[in-house]
Write a structure and sequence with these properties.
By secondary structure, the protein is of the alpha/beta class.
């Protein structure tokens, strides 16, 4: 089956100070995919992204910061003449505990500012995505510190397993479609 997905966008924030933070789960999964395919990210200032070419797939890390992700995604989509269903987004999800991933064909932003930006720029909610659980903060009012904070040492092993599982889910989606992939990976723990 030839995958309709042509661009995989991992959401996160650029720069070393944000590396390995919860909000950068999308970048982490893209790094795993790039490693799998043996491709390397290169900065493309004009496209406002770091890009890597996989087999018939463009991997994209926006350099626009999370809240402006759509400012990178829409021009890329228009340049390549791809439709929203050909753009696959990977992003962090506070409503799921670490270790949980969920594939969706479409849906609302659910309070995620990166997804809000993409929906606003594309004018639709109908694009496939993988939500990567990062869990809720330990205390009230700590959301920003939580999503911009690094994973705790005791979470590292589960994080690595989940990144690998998320990359496998993306690969399975590319070859079998999101519905079959969701049947397998949405229920797996």
């Amino acid at each position: 089956m030839d995958s309709p997905i042509k661009i995989i966008v991992g959401l996160g924030n650029p720069g070393k100070s944000y590396a390995d933070t919860r909000h950068n789960a999308g970048f982490m999964v893209l790094d795993k995919l790039a490693e799998h395919w043996g491709c390397v990210f290169q900065l493309d200032k004009k496209r406002k992204a770091e890009l890597a070419a996989g087999p018939g797939i463009l991997l994209v890390k926006p350099t626009t910061f999370m809240n402006e992700s759509g400012a990178c995604v829409r021009p890329l989509m228009q340049f390549f003449k791809f439709s929203p269903h050909q753009v696959f987004i990977i992003h962090d999800e506070i409503d799921f505990p670490l270790g949980t991933i969920k594939l969706r064909e479409k849906g609302s932003a659910g309070g995620h500012n990166g997804i809000k930006s993409i929906i606003a720029h594309l004018g639709t909610q109908e694009f496939p995505r993988l939500r990567f659980g990062i869990g809720l903060p330990r205390g009230k009012g700590e959301m920003v510190g939580h999503v911009l904070g690094k994973f705790r040492p005791e979470e590292r092993e589960l994080l690595d397993v989940t990144i690998a599982r998320a990359a496998d889910a993306v690969l399975y989606t590319l070859s079998h479609g999101i519905t079959l992939a969701g049947n397998i990976y949405n229920s797996a723990g």
